[in-house]
Amino acid sequence: MARYSKTVIVLHWLMAVLILAAWFTGEGGRHVRENPPVLHFWLGLSVLVLLVPRLAVRLFGGIPAMEAPQRPLLDLAARAGHWVLYGLMLGLPITGWYAAGRLGVPVTFFGLPLPALAASVQGSPGWVAEVHETGGTVVLWLAGLHVAMALWHQFVLRDGTLSRMSPV
Ligand code: HEM
Ligand code: HEM
C-alpha cells in the first residue's frame, strides 16, 4: 500500500485540527472590534504558515500512486476537491487578516506585530470580510464531504484510501 509521506500525514492531521479549531473560535460582528478573537487569528495564521511546507512537499513530491484506479472521473473530482481545499487554506487566512485590518484590529503572531493588509474603516468591514465568513462555512461543508468520501472509499470501496493518510 503506497502511503503519503510522514511529513504530509503529520501536516494533514495537524492542519485539520487547526482549521476546525479556527472555525469554532471565529466570531463576527461588532464584538470583534471590542474584543478581538486572538486565538482565532493565531489558529488561522498557523494554517497559513504550515501551508508553505505542505504545498512545497505536494508540488515537488507528488502523491502516492493508487493501486488500482478504476474510476478516472471520480479520481479527477477528488483531485479537484483537494485543490479547492488548498485554495481555502490559503484564501481564508488572507481574507481574515484583511478583514482584521478593515476592522482596525491589530494582528500579532507569536508576539510579532503583522502589518495591516487594509486600512481601518468605520462600519461594515466590506465584502472581503463577508467572503471570509462564507468561506469559513464552505470549508466546513467541504471538509465534511471530504470525510464522508474518505470513509466511503475505505469501508464501501475498500480501496485503502484512509490507510494512505493514516498516522499509524
Ligand atoms: C483556516 C483559517 C480560518 C477559518 C476557518 C476562519 C473562519 C472564520 C469564520 C467561520 C468566521 C465567522 C464567524 C461568524 O460570523 O460567526 C470568521 C470571522 C473572522 N475571522 Fe476568520 N477564519 C480563519 C482565519 C482567520 C485569520 C488568519 C484571521 C486574521 C488574522 C481571521 C480573522 C477573522 C475576522 C477579523 C473575522 C470577523 C469578520 C467580520 O466580522 O466581518 N480569520 N473566521
Ligand atoms: C477527520 C477528518 C479528515 C479525514 C478522515 C481525512 C482523510 C483524508 C484522506 C484519506 C486523504 C487521502 C486521499 C487520497 O489518498 O487520495 C486526504 C487527503 C487530503 N485531505 Fe483530508 N481528511 C480529513 C480532514 C481534512 C481537512 C479538515 C482538510 C482541509 C480543510 C483536508 C484536506 C485534505 C487535502 C487537501 C488532501 C489531499 C492531499 C493531496 O494533495 O493529495 N482533510 N484526507
UniProtKB/TrEMBL annotation:
Organism whose genome encodes this protein: Alsobacter sp. KACC 23698
Subcellular location: Cell membrane
InterPro entries: Cyt_b561_bac/Ni-Hgenase, Cytochrome_b561_oxidase, Di-haem_cyt_TM
GO molecular function: electron transfer activity; heme binding; metal ion binding
Domain Cytochrome b561 bacterial/Ni-hydrogenase: 3-165
UniProt keyword terms in alphabetical order: Cell membrane, Electron transport, Heme, Iron, Membrane, Metal-binding, Transmembrane, Transmembrane helix, Transport
GO BP terms, alphabetized: respiratory electron transport chain
Entry GO CC: plasma membrane
Family: Belongs to the cytochrome b561 family.
Gene3D superfamilies in the record: Transmembrane di-heme cytochromes, Chain C
Cofactor: heme b
Record-annotated membrane-spanning stretches: 7-26, 38-60, 80-100, 138-157
Protein name, as recorded: Cytochrome b/b6 domain-containing protein
Membrane topology of the entry: Multi-pass membrane protein
